[in-house]
Amino acid sequence: MLLALALMWRANARVGAATNQPAGQPTNRVANVDASSTRDGLVRPTSSPPPYLLSPAKLPSPLSLDSLTMAPTATESAQDSAFKAPPTLYHVSEPKFNGQLPQSDDYDKFKGRNEVAIVIDNGSWNTRVGWSTDTVPRLAFTPICSRYRDRKLGRTFTLVGNDAYADSNSRTAAKNAFDIDVISNFDVMENILDYSFLKLGIDGENGIGHPIVMTETLCNPSYSRKTMSELLFEAYNAPAVMYGVDSLFSYHYNGGTNGLVVSSSNATTHLIPVVNSKGIMNMATRLNWGGAQAVEFLTKLLALKYPGFPSKVYQPQLETLVQDHCYVAQDYKAEMSGYLEMGTLEERDRVIQFPYTEIVKEQKTEEELAKIAERRKESGRRLQEQAAKMRLEKLKKKDEELTYYQHILEKGKNETKKNYSRILENEGFRDEAQLEKRIKELEKSIRRSRNKDLGIEEEEEEEVPSFPLLDVPDEDLDEDGIKQKRAQKLLKANYEARLRLRAEKEKERERIRLENEKDEERRANDLGGWIAEKRSMRDGLVAKLKEREQKKTQLSDRKSLASLNRMKAIAHLASDEPTRKRRRGNDEDTFGADDDDWAIYRDIAAVNEEEEEEDEEMQTELKNLETQLLQFDPDFTEDSLQDAKSNWQNSLIHAFLRGTRPFDLENQAEANQMHLNVERIRVPEVIFEPSMAGVDQAGIVEITTEMLLNRFTDEKQREMIYRDVFLTGGYALFKGFEERLKTALTAVLPFEAPLEVRTAKDPLLDAWKGAALWSKTNIGQPAWKMAAVTKAEYQEKGSDYLKEHNLGNVLS
Amino acid sequence: MAPSSTPTTIIHESLDITNLDKPFKSASWKPAARRNKNLKQVLTEVNRAQAASIIASQAQTEANTGDNTPIPESALAGLSARATAAQQASALQKLSLSVGQPAPTYGNIDAAPSLHPANSGHWCDLTGLPASYVDPKTKLRYANKEVYGVIRGLGQGVADQYLAVRGANVILK
């Protein structure tokens, strides 16, 4: 669930986000999920990015090798692109707090006028609040509230709406009032209402003193409405409350009487037929797709597209991406098919630049460089001096040691043998020979360091050691002698081995030199033949590498022949049963008699280190061959190189991920770029084809046809509805939505149906404006009495009492 | 403890509405306990209430038929058999009407699944392009062999994440 949760980015901002997730996303099996990011950050698989993300030069290997013999043709276009102007960058910034909403100071104008209603468009995207006499809502804010306790101050803060974005502390504590499109968190709702009334400047005692006109979602569950009524009547002592459906208010504002309201908003899409200004509620249909789901969809797509994206991506940024760059394709399949074509991708590809910090390498001046060099030299000199001093001291010590030992040796000549051996023992020597050896060593080392100090290159004469005891037969030696003889034997063997090795190395060097000479000679004499030979060598290597690669992929598939063979071999080796051969009487276990038998262990190793090493060797050899060919073969150009095989210009994946320009992994700016291309039409398209995003419902075109053709029985009404298909809600802001819906509906509705499609004047604000308009014209009229519930009625008839009216929900 | 005056604290103090005077709010208002319910809880309750009301209405219909009600002999004499039949019919009609035209509720206005699955295209799970192939191993749809190469190289579990985007992943419970 980690990834699932984090993918949402909104987990903290939305109540019950976890429950909205398709249950049981791959959890434990996803071993490569790094959950180290913070709560509202993007969590992505890090340890094993898809191979195509490494770099364009390392594009999928086994397949790209197929095109080996194809002549490269992209040289020209490659040069073109090298001089391409840099792309237009669309920057996204980190979420910022834009200051608080204005406080109204004109409440005096409204005080005591209870024919002026407080109009609240209570949507899941924005809460919009204003007086019914206003032309636009005074307040519009996200319906969230953040209550958090500052432990240092010992004080609880309550921040509502956009104020909750003030800093990261309050942002992470923010809770949303809505679960999809229904209010579920009334603590948040209460704070939102408090905040709204405070912002309006209401200061009357004993209640707000104005009727409330509030929108609610289609078929709002009665529990939600009941609790809201309790809140409005009991906490705020509202004189009357009227509820209506947002999209119907919007339709009302746009002067519609008969038509189909298609309201695609943040959380859902509703389709409500309207006849004689009354919503036909039992035909109303909901599609569980809206702007929020579109953002979520884009989030998932981008998290998969750029798994290792270096910057943090915030929810508001994604919302901006959807709003600014997505549009509805007129012919989705046709447009999608050609979307990633290199030639024209430039105009469709949007490069989104996320903020990043460039690691700047300091440029040093000449003077500074000189200074540094001087300093380095100085310190080097000092070090040298120190080393010389140390060497001198060591030399002195050695000298002293030498004289001391020499003195002992001298002394030994005059002493008795017993005394002498005691002295030797005290000094840690076994016998005189050892002492002599030591003296010799010291002399040698002193001489060497002296020479070094004086700068004399001493010829290291290899002293041929003598092994005198070897020729003496064992019988003539005492026990000690035999021991020494054995030691000498070993020494001799060592010495000889060293010599042999040296000779071999020399020979190898000579062989390579000769080979190179021969190669060069051949090249000089017969260039064509040489090239052909080298090329065939190269092709052979490439084929071998390809084979290796294939085997590797085959082994990763449990059911492949290679895997099966491997398992068979393992089982065979592990079995205690005698093999069939042995049962037949051939008792000899001949395993190992042939050296090739051991190769079986190489074959069954899952990760073959040796093979990997070999692979590397072959790669270097290939590279060598290619450099030679590049140098001498006029037909062999940069483009025929093995790496260029996976030329990014012909790569669909490159176009998808990196657009029309080469990608430089080292470039910080480019690493922090996202390319929006197919997503631009893929995301909004879901409303026509919900199965694309895993929503098991029909798309809006199918819903409309089903509703109008099968469920509507009145021919005349149907005709009228055709004439006015009305789009409202945030989704209607997508470019091309209206046209697309019209084309799609024309295709499926009966021939010459008088179809008209239009969009609300302001798809976002018209619900509020409609509610304000309605209250302005109807408060005090009979229609108001028919629609609004007064406080007295609430007290008499209970909290779930509702009056049905043209623009509102019906009792259920 | 001296209040710290970091910039964010100052902003928060100016935004905080906890201690602001709210004269319009009833002093005696106390929110009901446990009034916050998520949509799922709300809908479950609605369903339960509906089921209960259907059972109740059925019970009432049965009572109306008079089959189970002990009717005094004298009353039975006065009632014609025809009247009982008429009563029964009307009750039945009422029931069938209420079943045939259920009131729209949050739960039942959901759009039905598509009846034209053929309409839904097959799109490449990675690039979104029209896809002609399906990888038998991962069940991912893909547009061309280059994308297939990428699919073969996907890390463990990544294919499932791609499938999850269109709700086609296998869920083990």
Automatic annotation (TrEMBL), chain A:
Cellular localisation: Nucleus
Primary subcellular site in the record, as a coarse category: nucleus
Keyword tRNA-binding carried by entry: no
CDD domains given in the database record: ASKHA_NBD_Arp5 (cd10211)
PANTHER family assigned: ACTIN (PTHR11937)
Similarity section: Belongs to the actin family.
Protein known as: Actin-like ATPase domain-containing protein
TrEMBL record, chain B:
Main location: nucleus
Keyword presence, Transcription: yes
InterPro entries found in the cross-reference section: INO80C/Ies6, Vps72/YL1_C
Keyword tags: Nucleus, Transcription, Transcription regulation
A single GO cellular-component term on record: Ino80 complex
Vps72/YL1 C-terminal domain span: 122-151
Compartments where located: Nucleus
Domain of life of the source: Eukaryota
Pfam families named among the record's database cross-references: YL1_C
Example of a GO biological process term: chromatin remodeling
The protein's name in its UniProt record: Vps72/YL1 C-terminal domain-containing protein
Organism annotation: Dactylellina haptotyla (strain CBS 200.50)
